[in-house]
Amino acid sequence: MGAGSRCVSCLCCPFKCVACGLFSCLCSVLISLLVIAGVLALILYLIFRPHMIAATADSASLAQFSLAPNSALAYNLTVGLTVRNPNKRVGLYYDNVESLALFDGQRFGYAPLDPFYQGTEASTKLTPGFHGQQPLQGDVTAANFRQQQSDGKFAVDVKLNAKLRVKVWAFKVPGPKAKITCPLSIPAPGGNGAPFQPTDCKVWF
User: Fold this and answer.
1) What's the whole-model pTM score?
2) Mean pLDDT of the chain
3) N or C: which end of the chain has fewer CB within 10 A?
4) Other CB atoms closer than 10 Å to residue 131's CB: what's the count?
């Protein structure tokens, strides 16, 4: 159809033409805003170059770690973690912070932690504690537990999850979800073996 046909259509249904025009205008504005936001995000990234956070397990001790005949694990674990923000211009808010403890891939402990803020180049000490009872599944896991108990040390994974918000100047923008995993070798309770060695943790986003 030509311009004449479009004119006739608008004359017959002017409200339809107005609605189409408004929709087109809104789409253009939204696309422009998305492009501007993307360009600003790229500029901020190039200016501030945010670095990945770092985490270390400084201490870990087992006051109790025993497996009953019915495969119920009784545990009392305390861990000391240091989380560091290496950025010189970017502050970090940690929300929905949770810590988990796993043995042989099975979660046995859960501890929520308070949200916190890290300024530039700041470090935060965290001390999640896990205690209680939790059944472990499978004969292989039970055999691994007995073997590690005989060796005098247990392989335990401690994980820390948090939703990040990034602070740049006075602006706060949503960030990624940080996932920290610390593979620990912890002396068995009452053992006389080697003490716990500080361990670097792995960080994913």
Assistant:
1) 0.77
2) 87
3) N
4) 13
